[in-house]
Amino acid sequence: MNNGFSTGEEDSRSNSDQICCLVDDNDRCRRPAGNASYSKRIQKTVAQRRLKLNIDSQARHTYICDYHKTMIQCARTKQRRPKDSEDDSHEAEMDSPEVDWVQLQVNTLKRYKKHYKVPTKPGFNKTQLAEAIQKHFKSLPVNEKEIVTYFIYMVKTNGNKLDQKNGMNSDSV
């Protein structure tokens, strides 16, 4: 490309022998370029999302690799996510389903409170107890990978957590 005009030589080559035109966090990308071009719209998204991407001044084209294309598309969709209130603290809550704690029986809520030692003031009514338990429940750390792995293991071995507590194993049954 010369002064913004194509010489024809770049156009005759396929993108397969070109590498991505982007510099990612001060390192030139070495992935093969795809058919996506680094347009003004994409530059605007990169600037708004503060991605550490720049076009290499030595690049003779504006084609980017599929990796960076996907990265920019993901940043664009995160940017468009609707917000249901002014408070940003509810964003994490929207990712997981809500549990209606008030529908549980008071005895169930009390057992949860006792088991997890949830601190509450004496004399809480059902709604206040449900709110305290909901706050505690949302604060519990969850290792999703470990839980899913354990679940799959138990399904494959026809195991049951109750069997393990009673000293039984699925192999001995």
Automatic annotation (TrEMBL):
UniProt entry keywords in alphabetical sequence: DNA-binding, Metal-binding, Nucleus, Repressor, Transcription, Transcription regulation, Zinc, Zinc-finger
A single BP term in Gene Ontology: regulation of DNA-templated transcription
The keyword Ion transport is annotated on this UniProt entry: no
UniProt cross-references to Gene3D superfamilies, sorted A to Z: 3.40.1800.30, 6.10.160.20
Pfam families per UniProt: SAP30_Sin3_bdg, zf-SAP30
Nucleus is among the record's keywords: yes
Subcellular location: Nucleus
Domain Histone deacetylase complex subunit SAP30 zinc-finger: 16-87
Biased composition (Acidic residues): 85-96
Entry GO CC: histone deacetylase complex
Signal peptide: none
UniProt cross-references to InterPro entries, sorted A to Z: His_deAcase_SAP30/SAP30L (IPR024145), SAP30_C_sf (IPR038291), SAP30_Sin3-bd (IPR025718), SAP30_zn-finger (IPR025717)
Domain (Histone deacetylase complex subunit SAP30 Sin3 binding): residue spans on this chain: 104-156
Region (Disordered): 76-96
Superkingdom in the source lineage: Eukaryota
GO molecular function: DNA binding; transcription coregulator activity; zinc ion binding
Protein family membership: Belongs to the SAP30 family.
Name of the protein in question: Histone deacetylase complex subunit SAP30 homolog
Species of provenance: Euphydryas editha (Edith's checkerspot)
Lineage per the UniProt record: Eukaryota, Metazoa, Ecdysozoa, Arthropoda, Hexapoda
